[in-house]
Design goal:
The chain has helices at 32-35, 160-166, and strands at residues 13-17, 20-24, 48-51, 67-70, 76-78, 83-90, 96-102, 107-116, 123-124, 129-133, 143-149, 157-158. By secondary structure, it is mainly β. The protein has a single domain, classed as Glucose Permease (Domain IIA). Strands 3, 4, 5, 6, 7, 8, 9, 10, 11 and 12 form a ten-stranded antiparallel β-sheet that branches.
């Protein structure tokens, strides 16, 4: 086996394991896929799913149209992929919200933010900071409401976890 030469790829740490090169990305840094316009999670902070997609309840649609990630207020919320910001303002029950039109034509709503860091018209990539988590609008505590729509209007929602999974992003 030849000597391992220095390898630098966006903060990755090379490790040789049984003749295989394993790249470990430290927490909080971009991965190669993100840098190449790939896909990533909307949060880096610890979270848990506090409300699943489609749960029946007291929502305008009669069911939950997104998934809620319970996370401490102020956690960094980032774009899961490349697209264009089409909304960045207070938006009814969603409170402070950002909507991104993804390259594939879907719309992603990030709701209940405490702070918005982007403006409409901005091009974003995977990992771009959109704002900070919070409890603005109709919320009972700090979380990120993450919703995916086939079209921009309300009622065009699809399962956000399945959408992310199709792009190689898995949330538990």
């Amino acid at each position: 086996m030849t000597a391992l030469k220095e390898l630098t790829l966006l903060g990755t740490v090379p490790t040789v394991v049984a003749s295989a090169l394993v790249l470990t990305v430290p927490q909080g840094t971009a991965s190669a896929a993100e840098a190449a316009g790939g896909w990533t999670r909307p949060l880096t902070a610890p979270y848990y799913i506090s409300s699943s997609y489609g749960v029946q309840g007291d929502w305008a649609a009669g069911r939950h149209t997104g998934v809620d990630f319970a996370v401490a207020s102020g956690a960094r919320v980032r774009s899961v992929g490349s697209g264009t910001v089409v909304l960045a303002r207070r938006s009814g029950a969603y409170g402070k919200a950002v909507t991104v039109r993804m390259r594939d034509g879907h719309y992603i709503v990030y709701g209940h933010l405490s702070k918005i860091s982007v403006k409409p018209g901005r091009k974003v990539g995977a990992g771009t900071r959109l704002g900070s988590s919070g409890a603005s609008g109709r919320a009972s505590g700090p979380h990120l409401h993450f919703e995916v729509r086939k079209a921009r209007g309300y009622g065009n929602d699809i399962n956000p976890l399945r959408y992310l999974s199709r792009h190689g992003v898995h949330m538990k």
